[in-house]
Write a structure and sequence with these properties.
six-stranded mixed beta sheet, two-stranded antiparallel ribbon, 8 strands
Length: 249
Amino acid sequence: MGMTQCFSGDTAGIELVLRIVLEKQDLKVVDVSTQVFVGNLLNRSVRLDVVATDSQNTKYDIEIQRAAKGAGKKRARYNSSMLDAKLLQKSDDFNKLPESYVIFITETDVMGKGKPLYHIGRYIFDTAERFDDGSHILYVNGAYRAENELGRLMEDFACTNPDDMHYTVLAERVRYFKESKEGVAVMCEAMEKMWNEAVNEGIKHGRKEEANAVARRMIAAGLLPDEAIAEYSGLTLEEVKQLRQEQSA
């Protein structure tokens, strides 16, 4: 939630991330939206963390996930399909479907192979050739550390102190949300929205596990004191402190 919120309207930050992850130094981001709801009248809808468009009209869904549970293979597949579904109008030719990327940035190496990046795509089994349909899925290992661009970027993603971050564009954005009056107000509004959505899902009707989940997301954001998290989540201060201790263990 924290890093996602920091990318709200921030083309420079997303541009930095995409340039490093995709190794495209000339990539130019022209539009960024966060927490994009993609509705489905008949089946499950989805909320995408960050949706960006570059100057070539390539579309990107960037999911920032602390828990491996939220970054499953079927989740990546579904996000890709829902991203595609919103890109064509009823009368558009299928060939107008733009290139798309679903990128999961996870706290741990969810693939478990020790790689910094995992590129997933379709190919033809019988000929071992790529089936180049313009759809891409990438997993970025957030635990990766090295003295290179990606290693430093992943270190910044795990950092809550802007003074310790490598990339100025990310540090300035985090500093804005943590230290400026306007930024703190925006973050508190986002937390309140999260709480209201949680209430609608039934937290106030005995679903303690949902309240814990909301509190954990707020703790992970690293932008609110325990007292504020307790107020928004409906938990006691002692319960919030216990969750914080468990997450830091």
